């Protein structure tokens, strides 16, 4: 009985290819990431079924993914995968049918490994930076990728077929619960030693993958800078560390919205958190939540690291959620409080103070919809209140830039 083995030369090559992603890991640390568990196989029943995991890190619309998969069986000498009908086609359209030999594997450990694959991919997801388009697609986000890696299959009647490959393909990801999603994709592998032209091939030459994904937030190690001279930045007071019940979370949200409503028409003032002279965007949110004993950081970007991410598609947002915008569509520098029915309240330079705006309504609403980066839920059942250490002004991050939305054509108000 022939025991399975994997070519170490091919494994070394694949490991080297995967290690190329490590130096650029930090460049994508600020973006969200995905953990996937997937199953993959070709269309023919004679091909082995692979199960594996993948890790993806995104920065803007570009992602880096590393994945690995194995084909398992019970390792019994008498156990084999059923053979199937194969079709081999060349790029000129000619196809030939033949019967595949059965696969039989034995690792000697009670678990058979009949094949393996490993890939490092560069992904492009163009609609990640366009939440409005993603919403129109009902939460679906298509992507394309190209990568390098290796694959090995061990048939019972032939030597191992391990080889280095490059691959290309496309897929789509869909958010189910904001942090939980599903994905499907198709991949075409080509040997690095092949000198044939790039060809799409028949559907039988493609590997199809379906997976379940869990999203997790990235992190940022921003270097704090001193606020501009003459701007007074108050010292944050520690919040109360405790978990909210559903009833208390609802009461806090209602009071936050009432307090924010009472500040409508307060003028915009960069660097201020004082209602008697005005607010900037982050200062307004920090003040409103601070009145409820919830201490938030001083900048929109820092606030966006708290709570849990919420999908921005229709029906996912709740009153009290925080919306984060970027003048360039990617870098967060503005924050608002969602009030329900697409309305949000914020301190806006282009609106001359605290006012309501509506996502997608009029030139201003369209600008904010196009520049919406993400949403976070700060107060929720079972969530601990955010707590910020006491700091002095030198510990504060750079203040947010004023928003560049079209000027308001009416006075701010409800």
Strand content: 25-35%
Q: Provide the CATH topology of the largest domain.
A: Porin
Helix amount: 10-25%
| Strand adjacency order, main sheet | 1-2-3-6-7-8-9-10
Radius of gyration: 27 Å
Total strand segments: 18
Report the order of strands and helices. Answer: HEEEEEEHEEEEHEEHHEEEEEHE
Query: What can be said about the biggest beta sheet?
Result: 8 strands, antiparallel, barrel
Question: What value does the average pLDDT take?
Answer: 76
The count of domains is 2
CATH architecture of the largest domain: Beta Barrel
- What is the end-to-end distance? 79 Å
User: Would you tell me the structural class of the helices and strands?
Assistant: alpha+beta
* Morphology: elongated
Number of helices: 6
Task: Report the top-level CATH class of the largest domain.
Answer: Mainly Beta
Given as residue ranges, the uncertain stretches (5+ residues, pLDDT < 50) are 1-10, 18-30, 76-84, 100-107, 218-242, 388-395
